[in-house]
């Protein structure tokens, strides 16, 4: 598959190769002809809107002033921002008008985009910036309507993902790339979003959290606190390490090298002991693993929870227990390029069926800083650096 980077426009012409893009990606066929809501998208189908959004982004002086890597991340996000609309479309009659809704398309689209970009060997750091943009691309349109604390939490969280300025740039292109009666109001909402982020000192940098614990508890809504001030608490709390990786990404190697004498609860080992095929239901495996984990939790003993944990819900099942028992939470997220991952898997003593890996890729949600005290994702580099965006030439300011 031709990488998205091959189609990134550049100076001086900033021209878009639409014929090349159209021929390169089979997922475009689903967007073409996919119905849009007649009120919010009079311009036509999802692919028509996508082309308009990408064109608006590429014409934006602020986007052009960004470093090339961030231009690429935003370009990929614009191209893929509505990729899940065909899969999430629901049609209903409202006051005699056929309305089209796409509830959840941002979140589902981020997951789909992750798989698409991973298969292209898209740089992981930029892939996750793009996926963060896709997951939140509608947020600037309504964040200003939220109460003070909710709005602050939104921009604080995004400051550790794509950064708030980059999200505002994409949202502005999304507003301009459509035909509707309230487009001017949408653009105004985006500018208000910038002002909220600037007010909370995180338009172009990470929000100033007092520390890891304050950031985790605040973003996950596990405690009511002002995250700019330390909350105290024991410095020697036991630690739950939650692994998150596709099969073949290197979890076992990381554990051998880094876990030391900490006990490991491995669902792979439990599965083999119970003689349960990895392609079959895993309820019994998970229950045995949870009971083993609870023994360590009750004993206040640091340990490693070793399974794929590729979705937020999967991780939360154990993280919630860890927090309840007073543990610090660390997530270790590992990955490998597609070809390398499948090669490693084939060379394992107990390879995972290819169809199982594909099912996991289809629901892969990379861990974020709202899920833990400490996130280690070697492929991404230091997570806070994602949000240190230079102010581009042509920027209108906050």
Automatic annotation (TrEMBL):
GO terms for molecular function: nucleotide binding. Keywords: Nucleotide-binding. The lineage of its organism: Bacteria, Pseudomonadati, Pseudomonadota, Alphaproteobacteria, Hyphomicrobiales. Residues 65-146 form the HD domain. It holds the Pfam family HD. Residues 367-376 have a biased composition (Basic and acidic residues). Residues 377-390 have a biased composition (Low complexity). InterPro entries: HD_domain (IPR006674), HDIG_dom (IPR006675), P-loop_NTPase (IPR027417), tRNA_CCA-adding_enzyme (IPR050124). This is HD domain-containing protein. It comes from the Bacteria. SUPFAM superfamilies: HD-domain/PDEase-like, P-loop containing nucleoside triphosphate hydrolases. It comes from Methylobacterium hispanicum. Residues 367-398 are annotated as: Disordered.
